[in-house]
Amino acid sequence: MKSINSHNILKISVIIPTFCEELNIKRTLMAIKGQKCCVPFEIFVIDGGSTDNTVKIAKNYAQTEIAPVCGKANQINFIVPKTFGDLLIFIDADTIIPDNYLQKMYTFFNKDPTLLACSARMKYTDFRNLIFKLGSRKYTLTIYEFQNAASHLYYFLKYHFGYPELSGCNIVVRRDIFFKVGGFKNPPNSWGLDKVFSDSILNLIRITKFGKIKTLTSISVLTNARKVSIIRGLKRYYNYNTKYDIYSELATEPFKNKKIKR
To answer: What is the Cα–Cα distance from 201 to 165, expressed in whole angstroms?
Structure first.
């Protein structure tokens, strides 16, 4: 954890849910530990009962606990009450954030009180990247540039048409907003977990007439492309659209018969 003297700042909790991620977790945690950040942050790994060396590795870099129930939503909901952050940052165990990620997120949320949650743009990779500089800017090219362009276009259009969606590999949300929407839900087969969370916040915004969520294009993260496939994408689309009522119910359930304040 890093610290500074001022108390009038947003504190940060970085949370990484894991399950059998021994091949990825060290790289992810090293990127977080190496942040150029002048605000307090803590790192929690919350494991779902890994049978490999994930927990052993994680303990060398972060506070590590094992959740009583496996599953990303269950693990996150279990650990959040034990954290101190005003900003909650959820990073997948196979995702690498740039060294200015935490500082930028702090700046975005500190300057804009209407920003309730966001994600950075994501780039799929196999971690064999071509990195080069043009002037002061650094660029990273991967073999998945077509998929990256398609992903960027998807999130851009969603935001443009008023239905922004958070990217599951990296989500930043204000602590009070996380609890107002009831944390993460467990949709059918865990498909659409992050979309339900996004929709829950959008419903909160509609009720309170305050706030926004967005995908930031000025910063990007690298995430493992091991799960990228057309078939998987079509399955997700089919699952969501054939069970829309279930997803909608999960996203609206936290607000039923409750008075929600801004």
So the answer is: 10
Angle between helix 244-252 and helix 193-208 axes, rounded to 10 deg: 50
Q: Around 256, how many Cα atoms within 13 Å sit in the side-chain half-sphere?
A: 6
**Which pair of tokens denotes residue 10?**
């947003």
The candidate with the shortest Cα–Cα distance to 31, out of 117, 106, 127, is: 127
Give the tokens for residue 189: 């087969």
The rounded distance, in Å, linking the Cα atoms of 248 and 251 is 5
Residue 169 phi/psi, 5-degree rounding, is -75, -20
- Which one of 3.40.50.300, 2.170.150.70, 3.90.550.10, 1.20.1250.20 gives the CATH number of domain 12-122+162-255? 3.90.550.10
Among 90, 134, 78, 103, CA closest to 223: 90
d(CA 30, CA 139) in angstroms, rounded, equals: 20
> In this structure, what token pair is assigned to residue 236?
């997700």
Residues of the chain by 3-state class (helix, strand, coil), percent to 5: 40, 25, 35
Q: Of 251, 234, 235, 233, which is closest to residue 124 (Cα–Cα)?
A: 233
Q: What is the pTM of this model?
A: 0.91
Residue corresponding to tokens 């303990």: 59
- Per-residue pLDDT tens digits of the chain, which is 262 residues long: 443 334 468 999 999 999 999 999 999 999 999 999 999 899 999 999 999 999 999 999 999 999 999 999 999 999 999 999 999 999 999 999 999 999 999 999 999 999 999 999 999 998 887 777 777 677 778 888 888 898 889 888 988 888 889 998 999 999 999 999 999 999 887 778 999 999 999 999 999 999 999 999 889 999 999 877 767 777 777 777 788 898 899 999 989 877 777 6
Distances in Å between the Cα of 229 and the Cα atoms of 2, 133, 147 are: 39, 30, 9
